[in-house]
Amino acid sequence: MNEEKLDSIIYFLMDKTVRISKKYSLKRLKEEGFDITIDQWVILLRIHEEEQQTQVELAKAVFKDTASITRILDLLHDKKLVRRIPNENDRRKSSLTLTSKGNSYVNHAKKVVFSIREEGIKGIDPKDIETANRVLRKMAENMG
Amino acid sequence: MNEEKLDSIIYFLMDKTVRISKKYSLKRLKEEGFDITIDQWVILLRIHEEEQQTQVELAKAVFKDTASITRILDLLHDKKLVRRIPNENDRRKSSLTLTSKGNSYVNHAKKVVFSIREEGIKGIDPKDIETANRVLRKMAENMG
DNA sequence: CATTCAATATTGATACATCAATGAACGAAG
DNA sequence: CTTCGTTCATTGATGTATCAATATTGAATG
């Protein structure tokens, strides 16, 4: 009854869909043998695409708090996927790089992540997705 | 550079926008004197609209885990907004009701929440929001 | 009636979010 | 060079999410 009421409120729908998609990704990745969350994945991919970043730069890029970055990096470090190399010029900073294990991990998981993405948007008109993206960006701008 | 890349991926955009809107709501509510998160708000409103629910029913309605419900209710209970009344017929269940403080709290906060919602979608064509809602519902269905 | 299976709520472990406070190191300005 | 303000990364406190395990109770069935 009020289920439908909530499902017509974009804030609720966003939250619900984010939770569903994170859960789904986690399950699918696990099925394919990857013990990683999507939040960890985004960080990993981002380091793969742009090595030698500092944590502040990384935080800006993925729009997360530096505190979150520290903790996610700790987990990726425990999994031997990422290394923090102390910066030569500025001893406060560390440059982030993937280990060789991290590199091959990204290359293998990439295919899985892409297919998960496709599964989630199957049957939706790309034009509508573009519209949704525009709406989301505008909302972020309004409140950010 | 890759900032734009991420901002064209609907999964990332949803996650980012959800985080921004939660942060924004929290700040705005605090400014108006309400010490509550939006997640707590949704639970509170839902109990207001439909009293005597069990936690399982509530969980289904707002699409959260019963574990999350337990913890959010603990916080609302600490704030003296919600009561758990043991069910007469089935001693496993409890029926949820608002305290009188909870009731007036909802009535006052409602206006603030509605105006926060408006602020977030300002300048967006309602048709586009409907499209976004459709997209989100379909994604949830695909992965749920 | 007793055994067994299912439902309800809670709790523990882990992951991620926020904000606030910290320590260390840099940079500029006296 | 010393002081002062800023930046970087980390940590602590708190809120929410997940999954798994538990205790309690109800219901069904032999």
User: Strand-and-helix sequence of chain A, N→C?
Assistant: HHHHHEEHH
State the CATH architecture of chain A.
Answer: Orthogonal Bundle
Annotation field: number of helices of chain A: 7
What's the quaternary structure here? homodimer
Q: What does the average pLDDT of chain A come to?
A: 95
Number of domains of chain A: 1
Q: Spatial order of the strands in the main sheet of chain A?
A: 1-2
Alpha carbon gyration radius of chain A: 18 Å
Q: Largest contact between protein chains?
A: A-B, 51 and 51 residues
For the termini of chain A, the CA-CA separation is 33 Å
Name the overall outline of chain A: globular
In words, what does this structure look like?
Two copies of one chain form a homodimer. Chain A has helices spanning 2-6, 10-31, 38-49, 55-62, 66-78, 100-120, 126-143; strands at 82-86, 94-98. Chain A is globular. Chain A is mainly alpha-helical and 144 residues long. In chain A, a hairpin with a 7-residue loop joins strand 1 and strand 2 (94-98). Chain A has one domain (14-143): Arc Repressor Mutant, subunit A, CATH 1.10.10.10. Chain A has seven helices and two strands, in the order H-H-H-H-H-E-E-H-H. In chain A, helix 3 packs across helix 6 (100-120). The first copy, chain A, has a two-stranded antiparallel ribbon. At the A-B interface, helix 1, helix 2, helix 3, helix 4 and helix 6 of A face helix 1, helix 2, helix 3, helix 4 and helix 6 of B. The first copy, chain A, binds a DNA duplex (30 and 30 nucleotides) through helix 2 and helix 5.
